[in-house]
Amino acid sequence: MNQLYLLRHGVAVDHGDPGFADDDRPLTPEGEKRVKQVAKGLLQLDLKVDRIFSSPLPRARKTAEIVAEVLAMSDHLEFTDVLLAGSSAPTIREWIGTRTENRIMLVGHNPALSDLISLLIVAGPRSSPFELRKAGIAALSGTTSAPMTLDWLARPRLLRKLGGD
């Protein structure tokens, strides 16, 4: 793998909402709208991926489905339990090391994704100086066998502006 994109799910129903168990929380209608705008921004960046992997939880699943549709990658979308909420950054890093694709996108949850950025760029367990916002994305390059390079980190607002919405 040479290129890794980490995308946090969009704005979901609040944690603790009595209408939803935590694992069942969906994106809000505004969250869906903003993810689509972010996806259009990624399209403007001419972002290329070989495969998109997502947590199967509804908020991440819908985020990944929207992004895959806008990037014309729906047939390259897979769901994996390694990206479930509560997964650890070291577990995800180990799984990434088994992948053969050159460019992959992971759609998942915090704190694991923000922790993964730190783990991959400093190659050690440290508290993350990064906090991926909802629908924010980080681009890294290199391999998981050595410290990766953080190429860029984008807030969702920037990507929405790039997408023209």
Key structural traits:
Rossmann fold, alpha/beta, globular, 165 residues
Provide structural commentary.
The protein has 165 residues and is of the alpha/beta class. It has one domain: Phosphoglycerate mutase-like (Rossmann fold, 3-Layer(aba) Sandwich). 33% of the residues lie in helices and 18% in strands. It is built from five helices and six strands, in the order E-H-E-H-E-H-E-H-E-E-H. Helix 3 (89-96) crosses helix 4. The longest helix has 16 residues, at 29-44. It starts with a strand and ends with a helix. The mean pLDDT is 92.
> Which secondary-structure class do the elements indicate?
alpha/beta
State the CATH topology: Rossmann fold
Q: What's the number of structural domains?
A: 1
CATH architecture: 3-Layer(aba) Sandwich
**Approximate shape:** globular
The chain-level mean pLDDT equals 92
- CATH class call: Alpha Beta
CATH homologous group name: Phosphoglycerate mutase-like
Number of strands: 6
For the largest sheet, list the strands in their spatial order.
3-2-4-1-5-6
Radius of gyration, taken over Cα atoms and rounded to an integer in Å: 15 Å
The SSE order reads: EHEHEHEHEEH
Unreliable spans: none
Oligomeric state, counting identical vs distinct chains: single chain
The number of helices is 5
Biggest β-sheet description = 6 strands, mixed
Helix proportion of residues, in percent?
A: 25-40%
Strand content: 15-25%
Q: Secondary-structure map with pairings?
A:
Blueprint: E1 3-8, H1 29-44, E2 51-54, H2 58-70, E3 77-79, H3 89-96, E4 103-108, H4 112-122, E5 137-141, E6 149-154, H5 156-162
Parallel strand pairs: 1-4, 2-3, 2-4
Antiparallel strand pairs: 1-5, 5-6
